[in-house]
Amino acid sequence: MLKVSIIGATGYAGAELLAILHRHPQVDIAHITSESNTGKEISELYPHFAGIYDMKLESLSDIEKIGADSDFIFIALPHGHAMDVGKKLEKLPVRIIDLGADYRFADTKIYETWYNVEHTHRNAQRVYGLAEIYREDIRTAKIIGNAGCFTTASILALAPLVRHHLIDVGTIIVDAASGVSGAGRSLKLGNHFAELYDNFKAYNVAKHRHTPEIEQALEDLSGEKIVISFTPHLVPMSRGILATCYAKIKDTRTIDAAFQKMYGNEKFIRLLGRGAYPETKFVRGSNYCDIGWHIDERTNRVIVLSAIDNLVKGAAGQAVQNFNIAAGFDEDTALDVVPLYP
Amino acid sequence: MLKVSIIGATGYAGAELLAILHRHPQVDIAHITSESNTGKEISELYPHFAGIYDMKLESLSDIEKIGADSDFIFIALPHGHAMDVGKKLEKLPVRIIDLGADYRFADTKIYETWYNVEHTHRNAQRVYGLAEIYREDIRTAKIIGNAGCFTTASILALAPLVRHHLIDVGTIIVDAASGVSGAGRSLKLGNHFAELYDNFKAYNVAKHRHTPEIEQALEDLSGEKIVISFTPHLVPMSRGILATCYAKIKDTRTIDAAFQKMYGNEKFIRLLGRGAYPETKFVRGSNYCDIGWHIDERTNRVIVLSAIDNLVKGAAGQAVQNFNIAAGFDEDTALDVVPLYP
Amino acid sequence: MLKVSIIGATGYAGAELLAILHRHPQVDIAHITSESNTGKEISELYPHFAGIYDMKLESLSDIEKIGADSDFIFIALPHGHAMDVGKKLEKLPVRIIDLGADYRFADTKIYETWYNVEHTHRNAQRVYGLAEIYREDIRTAKIIGNAGCFTTASILALAPLVRHHLIDVGTIIVDAASGVSGAGRSLKLGNHFAELYDNFKAYNVAKHRHTPEIEQALEDLSGEKIVISFTPHLVPMSRGILATCYAKIKDTRTIDAAFQKMYGNEKFIRLLGRGAYPETKFVRGSNYCDIGWHIDERTNRVIVLSAIDNLVKGAAGQAVQNFNIAAGFDEDTALDVVPLYP
Amino acid sequence: MLKVSIIGATGYAGAELLAILHRHPQVDIAHITSESNTGKEISELYPHFAGIYDMKLESLSDIEKIGADSDFIFIALPHGHAMDVGKKLEKLPVRIIDLGADYRFADTKIYETWYNVEHTHRNAQRVYGLAEIYREDIRTAKIIGNAGCFTTASILALAPLVRHHLIDVGTIIVDAASGVSGAGRSLKLGNHFAELYDNFKAYNVAKHRHTPEIEQALEDLSGEKIVISFTPHLVPMSRGILATCYAKIKDTRTIDAAFQKMYGNEKFIRLLGRGAYPETKFVRGSNYCDIGWHIDERTNRVIVLSAIDNLVKGAAGQAVQNFNIAAGFDEDTALDVVPLYP
Questions:
Q1: D248: Cβ–Cβ under 8 A, 6 or more apart, which residues?
Q2: Chain segment B138-148, per-residue pLDDT in tens
Q3: Which of D175, D214, D252, D305 to mutate: most A Cβ within 10 Å?
Q4: Residue D122 CB burial class (10 angstroms; 0-12, 13-18, ≥19)
Q5: Most buried of B25, B90, C86, D65, CB within 10 angstroms?
Q6: Cα of A197 to nearest chain C Cα, Å
Q7: Which H or E run includes A146?
């Protein structure tokens, strides 16, 4: 049994982690923290945990003790806070999986530019936490910077095409849509039920912070400098991301093969095939990323569609997948679930 | 390993059964059937099963062979069809859990009156499949008539009060609301998304078929003849039932104790307590029934609120709970899941 | 042209008032106020008004001037604030329609008990603003205490039965459900989209403040003391209220006639008839109250169903209806709209 | 007063037409037709019309008589049927506004290719019914081929940029999303509430029939051959379309001016400005098209966002706007309504 703690357990990603780890046969939860709700039981904040978890939320003020008690720590804090935790735990054997952005960038200057925060842990031993691409590095990493939600859907959709140089990378556009849980549990007018119901909108056009994260992974795969357009939209639903990705085709013939080659043995990627339409509901509650693609001969573009559950493959599920890899467990331990449908 | 078959696997309850049984360590799926989709793979009809189930749907025309191959058969057919299956399997050792109404009534005349169908298997050895009340009978039953969705929520809410004669049974009113999956997957205008979205309505007032089923269980508990008012409503959501139950109080003092006594050791009943508000989302995807109750001193009424997932505790989860009891497994095998939230 | 001002224009009811009054051929908007957004244009807060209204929000600090400028003032403030405004305008000729609770009760002690606030304007000349019952008094009232949303649906459903003594008033139960806009635009966790989506719950059981308001009107109609049970529920939708009302029948034969007699000539009440099912979507955006009723011979209960749009007939539309009566206009001026469907 | 008939009044667009025309002071409805519901009252099919419309649905079998009785005929039939009606009415003075696709294309071969139907009325005197671009032709046209829903949002978003040659037309991508009412009232599994709720998906990638319609209008504006990528998505909501349009910029400096120049005086286009985010709910129930645009300097792309109500500016509202122009009324007669919010 490994001892695992969750720093920032009361956001949606933290709660999803708790839900997933409840199924994990080799995990004991050591500590869960929340600064704003220290001392409360998690089930006071999330009544769906009633009778399942009755642990009390602690403060992270004594993070060194938490670190000493834990084999692995998951961090689900707003960006800018994980690097403080990471730095304090640098000398301890505990390994870290950060669900935020602090450890996602190889080049911390990119982070600083897009997040407008000074990076205070630049030399951290870290790896980008997207198993389908960086699996080998994840096995031994001290710190895993878990991939973001939009980025996971976007990178997985485009990776085979970029790796095999089948598209003109200067023409990539990712148009994506997410359910509201991606915006977190904090209150704002845009997430008020009455405002969002029967409503659809774009946001953060040309400036969403997942843009450079997608570019970084695609550059790793292609070896080329890549600049993309990324547009997020908000869908009046709880969970799910669909990414619709466009690019001009350089070589049509091997597109199907490229997907098959890269993902044929991946447990969590379901290739629905050419002409198929992933739907977010078909992956709801699961760690799957469903992918379909379309060749438009009129425009010589490929359109790749990918669907994930933003809280699972886009956050907590991916974190547990990374944890399983890092800890040497079967990659699908605790993740082998059927999507909840309808 | 037990061999299990599902007759009528392509409705929502059948699909939910498949999803739950995927988690069951002691079950092999032997056959799944669908008359309208014979020969197709289940994942063609339910793409969320892609990569999980690739079994082909068979016809139930050779039900005797299916019965001979199976230790247990779950039936998820429209009412009126299960009794044919049950009759044909009468001599085989296979045991049956019917998710429909055919085997729910001790007095088949009540069934015939409310369902307007002749009952053709009156002498079947059967038990009503609501474990919290009929657990001992379920252990050995040949046929289990799995309790309905509204009925489960209603009976569980009222059972402690009726058993201990704490309310005036002539004043019972159950006002309940269900998500749309309760109406099944077949198409009708009232379930068209555009018609139901941003909409709320009652239906089948004073004539819903779950009424006599509730009455039967309450009569069993109280020993009195009981006639209730039951009103179902349709909520623009996928899953979930909330029952709001009213009755005049005869004895206030022991109400809390009655709930505690009856359900204190029940795995799937979460007593949220007096003054508490169950929400359907807190049980979504799980087999829990959450219960809260309120004493209104102005009117001398008790109002009991209970929430279930109509497809789990209201259908497939309850069926697996009954199966576990009948087969001698731990009652929560395959059912020990955290609700999907948010 | 009459000059009309709105005190508290930035809540949902205030905004709906603006939307309705835009259609009114005999109204000029003189002032609109908001204390938290003074100086802003209304379309900054509600972009759907872009190009329609560009007025600036004022403070109500100089309410006497606003009162002097206006023929009518609509107040859409939280309870407890309207009575201050009403008192300050007592000597001016301006007439007042308050959408809140301050002027709804003939007996201010009831208000003080349920709202936990001292009433500071007890002797105000006021009338309860539900036109179908109090029309004649509304014509000349100085202050109209506009009926609440749940109360409107509940009273209109039960009024004919109570007036004609066709039911046992000791058995009345109103079980009602509302869309989220009824909870207003302020932020709270329960109204967060992700929390409420695919969710249904009751709230304020046995203590909702609309209870004594319903009782007051029913007592006026019947001449008897009446105590009812009232339970509100929250539906994951924007707009709409459905009230499901139960009572034991004293005289079945004249129920249909009672509805016809009381409402046969009412413009805004649509009698769908015995056995009919009102749906909230069929009245969305309109001032209609749709009513259907059911006789349950098994239980000797009548179940009356009524549907309104909580922001229109339950708030702003009713206020304009009252205004039209008070000002001598046709009662449906600005209210003669087709519901928005689907 | 003009006499107006609606051929195919029982789809969502036909019903919306009836709702809008109810507000039109110079219109009498002469006939409404439905082949599948001949003889029924419209309010049997759409109870929201109860007390508003009690007309009976007729057959279109005697279309010549209907034509002779009418000054204008709106056709809301599935594609392929309007051209029969149009042909039969060719010699009558009645003017026609077709909400379907039959009369949208100047080149009927394009229609035949994309709709897979032979065009039987090729020489019809017709104009494309998008007032902001073809207003002058609409005034006198015999037949107006009302613009489609996705096309209206897409064309209006891109028109100023294309007309003034500010973008590279070879790089245009339109990624759009629609509420479910756009798919009509007929039943199919994909529109079943339980299937679509909490779900998001693309459909008809690279083959949606609105593609050539968008191209036709953009070619008219630019004088160049244009081939675009168009991808529709289905949003779990009733009404609304958001189009997110991408193109490489040729000249950034005059983009703002181009929008202002083309739309500055348009009643139904609200320019929210550079950096703004239209939301579908801000136009719900209204004939507005809200537009915002964003310049992405990293990629040298412009992203234009436009929002409409698919049943109003995308169908029935636009039809009435065209009717007003053709009949010589103020263009906003019956269309001067505030969007329904929230």
A1: D167, D168, D171, D300, D301
A2: 999 999 999 99
A3: D175
A4: middle
A5: C86
A6: 7
A7: strand A143-146
Q: What does the block give as tokens for A111?
A: 């982070």
Residue C178 β-bridge partners = C234, C241
Residue of D189, D205, D295 to mutate, testing the A interface (most A Cβ within 10 Å of its Cβ): D205
pLDDT for the residue B194: 98
Alpha-carbon torsion, ordered B65, B67, B68, B70, to 10 deg:
120
pLDDT at site A150: 98
| CA separation for the pair C237, C247 (Å, rounded) | 28
Chains C, D: CB contacts within 8 A come to: 76
Do residues A307 and A242 make contact, with C-beta atoms less than 8 angstroms apart? Answer: yes
- pLDDT for res C279: 98
Q: Nearest to residue C334, comparing CAs of C74, C10, C76?
A: C74
> Which of these, B200, B12, D258, B177, lies nearest to C281 by C-alpha position?
B200
Contact C333, C327 (CB under 8 A): no
Three-state SS sequence of chain C: CEEEEEECCCCHHHHHHHHHHCCCCCEEEEEEECCCCCCCEHHHHCHHHCCCCCCECECCCCHHHHHHHCCEEEECCCCCCHHHHHHHCCCCCCEEEECCCCCCCCCHHHHHHHHCCCCCCCCCCEEEECHHHHHHHHHHCCEEEECCHHHHHHHHHHHHHHHCCCEEEEEEEEEEEECHHHHCCCCCHHHEHHHHCCCCEECCCCCCCHHHHHHHHHHHHHCCCCCCEEEEEECCCCCCEEEEEEEEECCCCCHHHHHHHHHCCCCCEEEEEECCCCEHHHHCCCCCEEEEEEEECCCCEEEEEEEECCCHHHHHHHHHHHHHHHHCCCCCCCCCCCCCCC
Taking Cα atoms as reference points, which of D301, D159, D278 lies closest to residue D218? D159
| Position A73 confidence tier, pLDDT thresholds 50, 70, 90 | very high
Residues above pLDDT 70, as percent of chain C:
100
> How is residue D10 annotated by DSSP?
S
CA distance A304 to A293: 4
ipTM of the complex: 0.97
Q: Is the pTM of this model over 0.95?
A: yes
B289 as an active site residue: the answer is: no
Q: Return d(Cα D234, Cα D213) in angstroms, integer.
A: 20
B199 vs B211: CA distance, rounded Å: 24
Per-residue model confidence as pLDDT tens digits over A288-342: 999 999 999 999 999 999 999 999 999 999 999 999 999 999 999 999 999 999 9
Mean pLDDT of A130-134: 98
Each residue of B203-228: pLDDT tens digit? 999 999 999 999 999 999 999 999 99
- For the four alpha carbons of A152, A157, A158 and A160, in that order, the dihedral sign comes to positive
A198 CB within 8 Å of a chain B CB: yes
Nearest neighbour of A48 by CB, restricted to B50, B51, B341: B341
Give the pLDDT confidence of D103-128 residue by residue, as tens digits. Answer: 999 999 999 999 999 999 999 999 99
Q: pLDDT grade, residue D58 (50/70/90)?
A: very high
